[in-house]
Amino acid sequence: MVRGRFVMLAACIAVMGCGSGGGSNDQGVAFRALGTFQEEEQIAPAVDTFNADSPTGDSGRIVRLSDTPTIPSDINGDGDLDGLFIGMRNDMDFQSVNVQGIQVEIVIEGALLSNPVATDFVPLAVSLGPAKVEEGEDVHNTFYSQTIVVSADIMAFLNQNRTLLPTPPFNMTIVMTVEGVADNGDSFDSNEITYNVVVEP
């Protein structure tokens, strides 16, 4: 009987946790992660540009553990990071959302480590305005942030534990959830977005 009460209590706590402080955001209805995007590459010394009006999707990349310091990294050697702009949008009509950061999980199927093999929280300081504004005002409810989601520490951890990872090539899935707090204090977790990385030998 005691065990049954414990299971019921755990279930209730889980349900309360899903509410995240009273905010309801099923599948990103109120606060949404739009996906991952990349900039338009320019020939050096010109700086790469990002078109927020019509962003280009970034579905993943190929890396080697030995020479990839972070994800994203400087793939083309022009001195700045390439890709992995996280899009986020506030769809609430009359409340702003202050983005706190991104919860990151690294999933590697076939690893001898339990999944996720690593987790991290990447702080962000982004404010998203409400979806509706007064006539003549600009809407600022969407933002794109280029963010290092796999840190140097996690890349070092993966390198140090290669014997516990599958033999390359293998897939590494980065699962991301954006966290934010609305004007009224409600906390919101966005829908999950994933980014696929192929790890080469």
Describe the protein's architecture and organization.
- The structure is a single chain.
- The protein is mainly β and 201 residues long.
- The protein has one domain.
- The chain is built from two helices and ten strands, in the order αβββββββαβββ.
- The chain has helices spanning 2-19, 152-160, and strands at 31-38, 56-57, 60-63, 85-90, 97-107, 118-128, 142-146, 170-182, 187-189, 193-199.
- Strands 3, 5, 6, 8, 9 and 10 form a six-stranded mixed β-sheet that branches.
- A hairpin with a 4-residue loop joins strand 8 (170-182) and strand 9.
- The relative contact order is 0.23.
H/E series: HEEEEEEEHEEE
- Structural class from helices and strands? mainly beta
What's the rounded overall pLDDT mean?
A: 87
Percent strand: 25-35%
The first-to-last residue Cα distance is 53 Å
Low-confidence sequence ranges = 1-22
Domain tally? 1
Individual helix count: 2
Total DSSP E strands: 10
Tertiary shape: globular
Q: Mind telling me the C-alpha Rg?
A: 19 Å
Q: What portion of residues is helical?
A: 10-25%
Largest sheet: 6 strands, mixed
